[in-house]
Every structure is written in C-alpha cells, then in structure tokens.
Amino acid sequence: MSEITIPFRPEFYEKILEGTKTMTCRSERMGEAGDLFKVCGQRFVLTQVFRAILQYVVTDAYIQEGCESPGDLIRVWEKIHPIKGYEPNTIVWAHCWREAP
Questions:
Q1: Are 69 and 62 in contact (CB under 8 A)?
Q2: Which residues lie closer than 8 Å to 25 by C-beta, 6 or more apart?
Q3: What is the pTM of this model?
Q4: Fold of 10-99
Q5: How far apart are CA 94 and CA 33, in angstroms?
C-alpha cells in the first residue's frame, strides 16, 4: 500500500467527494489496489485497477465515471483529450475506489 497522487480537474471534486464518481480511466496506470490518494483532503483507497477498452467504459461504466450518459462521458473525454479525441478501441487503465476508512 502506497500513498499516491491522482490529479483530477476541479470540476470533478464534488462528484468524487459525494461518491457519484468512483472511477477514472487513464492512459497510464496510476496505482494498484490498496493504494491511497487524497482529493480535497479526503482519503480514498483504490479497490481495482484494470485495463479496459474505452468503449466498455463509455457504455457500461459511465455512471462510475460520474457521467449521466455515454454521450456525456464522450464529451468529457474529448474535452480532456482534444487532439486524439474519442477512439472506442483505445486501451485505458480503469482505477476504481471507495472512501478510505
């Protein structure tokens, strides 16, 4: 178990703190299950880290990503990745968490 840093955009803080965003997908692995990180002083623990196809995340895990629909997640992804955009077959690292005890 390590203390890690996962950077988030400020617009996601509220969703993370209220528990409506419990996953983030990144192009690189940010940690391992059991690692701890903080958002606005609140501690969270990674529960799962796995590779996934971005299309899976968009269609099956958009709620965990804090989005209201697949289209909402695609818009968020394209905002964060304006050059590459949304490519459904992109392989990402999915990081899931819960509030740390």
A1: yes
A2: 52, 54, 57, 65, 92, 93, 94, 95
A3: 0.92
A4: Sulfate adenylyltransferase (3.10.400)
A5: 11
Q: Which pLDDT tens digit goes with each residue over 11-60?
A: 999 999 999 999 999 999 999 999 999 999 999 999 999 999 999 999 99
Which residues are paired to 45 by β-bridges?
A: 36, 98
Domain map (residue ranges) of the chain = 10-99
Tell me if 94 sits within 8 A of 49, measured CB to CB: yes
Residue 94: name the closest of 68, 40, 44, 58 by CA: 58
* HEC assignment per residue over 3-60: ECCCCCCHHHHHHHHHCCCCEEEECCCCCCCCCEEEECCEEEEEEEEEEEEHHHHHHH
C-alpha 50/C-alpha 38 separation (Å) is: 20
Q: What is the pLDDT of residues 49-92, one digit of tens each?
A: 999 999 999 999 999 999 999 999 999 999 999 999 999 999 99
